[in-house]
Structure formats: C-alpha cells, structure tokens
From TrEMBL:
Pfam families: DUF2388. The lineage of its organism: Bacteria, Pseudomonadati, Pseudomonadota, Gammaproteobacteria, Lysobacterales. This is DUF2388 domain-containing protein. Residues 1-20 form the signal peptide. Residues 23-45 are annotated as: Disordered. Keywords: Signal. InterPro entries: CHP02448. It comes from Luteimonas soli. Residues 23-43 have a biased composition (Low complexity).
C-alpha cells in the first residue's frame, strides 16, 4: 500500500509536465527520462528527482550506506510536496525514484 502511495506521489510530480509534452516518462518508468533531464526540457521540480537517479541507485545498491547530495535534495523535495513521501523511508523513496 505504501509503495502505491509513493508511486502516486511521484506521478504527481510528473503529470503536469507530461501533459505539457516536456516529460516523456511516467511513474511506471520511461526510457527517455534521462535524455529529457540532459536536454533541460523538464521543469525544475522534475529535474531534482531525475538528477537524483544515480545517487538513488548508489543508495539502494549500498543498502543505504552511500547518500549523495542529489538524493538528499530529491528526498527533501518529495517530502515537502507529499504526505505519503513524508511517511516513507529513504529506501522506499530511493526505489520509487529508480522506478520512474
């Protein structure tokens, strides 16, 4: 149930740009999300989360021992915008970021 709420919270950050055609992804994943981030076509909110993917991968792979600055910024950003994200663990949010 928590995972579903997290995915919904993350989807909320990507819905508006997706409707505008500037973000090609969804909460289920997107192959062009990386190219969108590098082209500068996403909004500032989406960039915070998208740019944290590498840090999130390191965090998950190290079982939480490696915490990058980009991941910390994304976690803070997600928690500011969502009650579900505030209730989720750092690991759950990192996995949700990777699922995007």
């Amino acid at each position: 149930m928590t995972r579903l709420l997290l995915l919904c919270a993350l989807a909320a950050f990507s819905i508006a740009p997706a409707m505008a055609g500037s973000f090609a992804g969804s909460s289920a994943g997107a192959s062009s999300a990386g190219s969108s981030a590098s082209s500068g076509s996403t909004s500032g909110d989406d960039k915070v989360v998208l740019q944290a993917r590498d840090d999130a991968a390191g965090f998950v792979a190290s079982d939480g021992r490696i915490r990058g600055a980009m991941l910390e910024a994304a976690l803070r950003h997600l928690r500011e915008g969502s009650l579900a994200a505030r209730q989720a663990s750092d690991m759950e949010l990192a996995r949700a970021i990777l699922a995007q």
